[in-house]
Amino acid sequence: MSRSHEPRIAVVPGSYDPVTNGHLDIIKRAAGLFDEVVVAVVNQSVRKSSALFSTEERVGFIQDALAEAGVDNVRVEPFFELVVTFARRVGAQAIVKGLRQISDFEYEMEMGHLNREQAPDIESVFVMASPRYAYLSSSWVKELARFDGRIEGLVPAPVAEQLAERLTRQRAAS
Ligand code: ADP
Fold first, then answer.
1. Is the CB of 98 under 6 A from ligand 1?
2. CATH value at residue 70
3. Is 31 part of any domain?
4. Does 21 contact ligand 1 (Cβ within 6 A)?
5. Which atom of ligand 1 is nearest to the CA of 97?
6. Strand 36-42's sheet: what is its strand order?
7. Cα–Cα distance between 159 and 150 in angstroms, integer?
8. From the CA of 137, how far away is ligand 1's center (Å)?
9. What is the pLDDT along the chain (174 residues), one digit of tens a residue?
10. Between 65 and which of 96, 98, 156, 159 could a Cys-Cys bridge form, CB atoms 3.0 to 4.6 Å apart?
11. Residue 86 sits in which domain range?
């Protein structure tokens, strides 16, 4: 990996609405592989419906969880452009993505090829999800929380609290 003494930097992009323990597992493992990691939080996605949490909240949840875990070579930033543009801007050589199952692989393979076309100098690196988180997604967590399912162990405790509060408020408003 060490081509020179320049720091090896990776971007770990996602919508993180909200961050799950599966995301944090991938981020921490990336932090072990690279000198610096920048978690890139999608400000607005053209693919997904509007987020439950604001960009600031989503960034804050990740920062708090990483501080709690004592991870210090990771920073968290919102981004408003193509992932490869963001990666270039922060001087990253790699984009790290987590792979849970075949459906992730199909999507990420398309994305990886497109990113390679856009920026051949930036490598896509795929990290296999830990088995205990291989079924875990932000959307399932929201679904469970919405119907009072148990989400302990799936997201950091402060995220679980905020989810309960947000969804209770939404229910009261509807
Ligand atoms: P989601 O697919 O849950 O909406 P994001 O868009 O925030 O999540 O995903 C960002 C990245 O994190 C993607 O590469 C996705 O495959 C990965 N990821 C999401 N959940 C997990 C998990 N439980 N384990 C490993 N990787 C994950």
1. yes
2. 3.40.50.620
3. yes
4. no
5. 14
6. 74-79, 36-42, 9-14, 94-99, 123-128
7. 13
8. 6
9. 555 578 999 999 999 999 999 999 999 999 999 999 999 999 876 666 789 999 999 999 999 999 999 999 999 999 999 999 999 999 999 999 999 999 899 999 999 999 999 999 999 999 999 999 999 999 999 999 999 899 999 999 999 999 999 887 777 777
10. 156
11. 3-133
